[in-house]
Amino acid sequence: MSKNSSGEPGIDQDRRNLVFATAGVTALACIAPAPATDAPAANAAPAAPPAGAAPAGPFSLPTLPYADGALDPVISANTLGFHHGKHHRAYVDNLNKAVAGTPYADMTLEKIIAATYGVADKLAVYNNAAQHWNHSFYWRSLRPQGGGVPPAALRGKIEAAFGSVAACQKELLTAATTQFGSGWAWLVQDGDKLAVTKTGNADSPLVKGQRPLLAIDVWEHAYYLDYQNRRADHVNAVLDKLYNWGFAADNLSAA
Ligand SMILES: [Fe+2]
């Protein structure tokens, strides 16, 4: 994958990707910044973009929080490479093109999503902004050697809402497998309670005033190279082996 050789900054380095300002949601601790080990000094001259790089813009592709092959065999390095390096990158590049010269170029990602949701002639801006947000969140929803037992505080909320962690996972599986066509399944915080929801295409729980805790991408590009049409097998494996309950717990604690 080219992500580490492209010179693109990490997720923490684009504040527009991180500030959570959507109506009904107050803070985006949901995407906790990663260590900015390669951040330039504050007074350093900006580096020239590499040859063949996408046009400069306010949004950037986040660096994955794990190695390309770290999620194998549930998600292969090949799938991860295409998904992150091609699909997610395309959303970022298209968003930068769509906002160039518009007031959106100076907005946070979340404000763009809120401002363009349901606006017919802003569909391209909305779709690419929402998909950039969704994917940035999705990468953090997974971790190598994930799954297992959620942290105590989160587990208590899960048991209060669903009865058990297993029942929560079953609802997530149902949401993921009954989403018709492309979309997402989510564990969200809705008021004081946890809930499972699903959204089509680029849509996000953000526009419903819900706080995302974890996401599952059920677009075919997320699994088809590894599982072909077996979406349920992919989702079950993600829930059992990759789900990042600690990330969800961090999101809860920031609520
Ligand atoms: Fe995706």
Give your account of this protein's structure.
The chain is mostly helical. It has a domain at 152-253: Iron/manganese superoxide dismutase, C-terminal domain (minor pseudopilin epsh fold), CATH 3.55.40.20. 39% of the residues lie in helices and 9% in strands. Strands 2-1-3 form a three-stranded antiparallel beta sheet. Strand 1 (183-190) and strand 2 (193-200) form a beta hairpin. Helix 1 runs antiparallel to helix 3, helix 2 packs across helix 3 and helix 5 (165-178) runs antiparallel to helix 7. The structure holds fe (ii) ion. The site of fe (ii) ion (FE2) has 7 residues, from helix 1.
Task: Write a concise synopsis of the structure shown.
By secondary structure, this protein is mainly α.
Describe the structure using short key phrases:
mainly alpha; minor pseudopilin epsh fold; 255 residues; 3-stranded antiparallel sheet; 3 strands; 39% helix; binds fe (ii) ion; disordered N terminus; globular
Write the layout of secondary structure elements.
Elements: H1 77-99, H2 109-116, H3 123-141, H4 152-162, H5 165-178, E1 183-190, E2 193-200, E3 211-217, H6 224-227, H7 231-241, H8 245-253
Antiparallel strand pairs: 1-2, 1-3
The structure holds fe (ii) ion.
Fe (ii) ion binds next to helix 1.
